[in-house]
Amino acid sequence: MDLYLLSAAGLSACWMLVHAIIGGRQCERPLAANTTLPDEMRETMILCWHLVTGMLALMALFLALGALGRRDMALAGVLLAAMSAGIGISVPPLRRLSYAVLPQGWLFVPVLLLGAWGLWGG
Predict the structure, then answer these.
(1) What is the distance between the alpha carbons of residues 3 and 115, in angstroms, rounded to a whole number?
(2) In the chain, what's the furthest Cα-to-Cα distance?
(3) 3 contacts 121 by C-beta, under 8 angstroms
(4) How many CB atoms lie within 10 A of CB 51?
(5) Which end of the chain is less packed: N or C, by CB atoms within 10 Å?
(6) DSSP conformational letter for 2
(7) From its phi and psi, is residue 2 left (phi > 0), alpha (psi between -120 and 50) or beta?
(8) What single-letter DSSP state applies at residue 107?
(9) Which helix (H) or strand (E) holds 28?
(10) pLDDT category of residue 93 using cuts at 50, 70 and 90
């Protein structure tokens, strides 16, 4: 069992729980209760929030399967972490926002590094 990939999987699972629990309270619930947004906008944002929850669960699963020897699944998990980090780190400056407002992309850097080390360096 690869401990780097297992660590990346555990960290991904942690971020999924943070997203589901804290993000649910801070983002999804207020969005669902908001009656001032058009239905299409509100419901699309809620759908995207749930899609991210699923993607985070898959990232953790893929990295866990990678820790058990499935290198193809590890690669999928590492690519999801790279995409999440890349988008999450590039969007705030593009939107002229501080990372204090949108720090989430940085959470995937350690997942990416641990996963990459487990996949290629370990």
Answers:
(1) 10
(2) 52
(3) no
(4) 10
(5) N
(6) -
(7) beta
(8) G
(9) none
(10) very high
User: Where does the chain have alpha helices with state H?
Assistant: 3-18, 29-33, 39-67, 71-94, 108-116
Identify the three-state secondary structure at position 83.
helix
Lookup result for tokens 């699923």: 54
**Residue 121: what residue type?**
G
Q: Which residues contact 61 (CB under 8 A, 6 or more apart)?
A: 9, 73, 77
What are the tokens at 107? 């959470």
What is the spatial distance between Cα 58 and Cα 16, in angstroms, rounded to a whole number? 9
| Percent above pLDDT 90 for the chain | 91
Burial class (CB within 10 angstroms; exposed 0-12, middle 13-18, buried 19+) of 79: middle
- Predicted TM-score (pTM) of the model is 0.90
In this structure, what token pair is assigned to residue 35?
Answer: 């009656």
